[in-house]
Amino acid sequence: MILQENATIHIASKPCYVDSFIGDGGQGEVYLVRYEGGQYALKMYKQEPSSSFLRNLRNNIENGAPDDNFLWPKTYVEAEGHKGYLMDLRPKNYSSFVAYLNGRTVFKDVRTMVLWCIRLCQAFKKLHEKGYSYQDLNDGSFFLDKDTGALLICDNDNVTADKTNLGILGKMRYMAPEIVRGETLPDTHSDRFSLAVILFLALCKGYPFEGERLKEYNFVDDEAENELFGTRPIYVYNAKDPSNRPIRGYHTAVLKRYPTLPTYIKDAFHKTFVDGLSDRENGRVTEIEWIRLLARYADELVTCHCGHQFIMGLEEPKRNDRCPDCGSRIPKIGILHIGKKMIVLEPGKELYRTHVDKYSSEYTEVVGEVVVNKKNPSLWGIRLHLDHDVLIKDATGKEVTISGTGVIPIVNNLKIKFSEDAIAEILVQN
Description:
By secondary structure, the protein is of the alpha+beta class. About 25% of the residues lie in helices and about 25% in strands.
């Protein structure tokens, strides 16, 4: 080990106490340390990084994290002849994305899983807006809170300015084909391909280019990987080429989960994994496009009394009027229509800033929540979290002003004026 437990090093002439060894990775070792009254993770590199790598690391520390979801380098460190940095510790309520893929961690429900995906897209939107590209998205980069859908992103020392590379190309299965083929260096466009791979993994628990073609190889070596993910990638649900469909009995999760996705999510994957193979700049779904599509997915979800969540398919070719899990018929349900957005209203469903502000893409700022009247459970309403009043009008034309912290009753044909640009209506459907 580079550092010994119970050792003391100095950072900016201040003592830093090494409590324990956390883990060992390809680039370095990570320790639990105490510094200036707080606990942190300290990563120390095994080998001397290049001068360009260290310069980029220092710049990232100076500029700060693009978003709170990143476990960003905080303080540069030199100790025992090695270089490294301090970062915040990952809270204990977070599990690795790998644990989710292996089934050791399970999201509370589908909506929580989709919210995690939205936060992932928002984080990378902010990263790219600051001129960075991550360049090495893979299943080991992310952590999740299974109960809330909260996100943390680690391994941010390789993040660098777009179209700049420090020697890290990525991990096979996640890299864009042009990176595998060595045609270009990682950038925002390759990040978007890798992001779609992570989203496909999250929603379907399988890889988008692993299907029947696996049978062509006795074992998947470097040459096979270069063909599968670089020179001859074929999306498993390519509409024009069915030669690489998921293998029954092997890709069980993908075969079970993919059919439950809304058509617009399937179309987005097809665009990135088919059109995006040849058109890396225009054929790949952007972060903001993913946010809007995933938000729509979360908005459409219905929770059955058995606990199963699924989409009604409000604009699908075939609607779900029964729970796919237990077969129960969907009861009458209120749907909030705001422009083209449709939000299924059920207890616990939240409204976000993006629902009531057409200029916002914030799917984290809660502006309302569906609540149940404690004295009369048949009465539902939307409790507001706004800094301004809203105007409601019922089917008779009667208008009432509701305070920004009041409750809007969920009744059929009720119109709600959140602002001049956001006028909604509640419609109850069978």
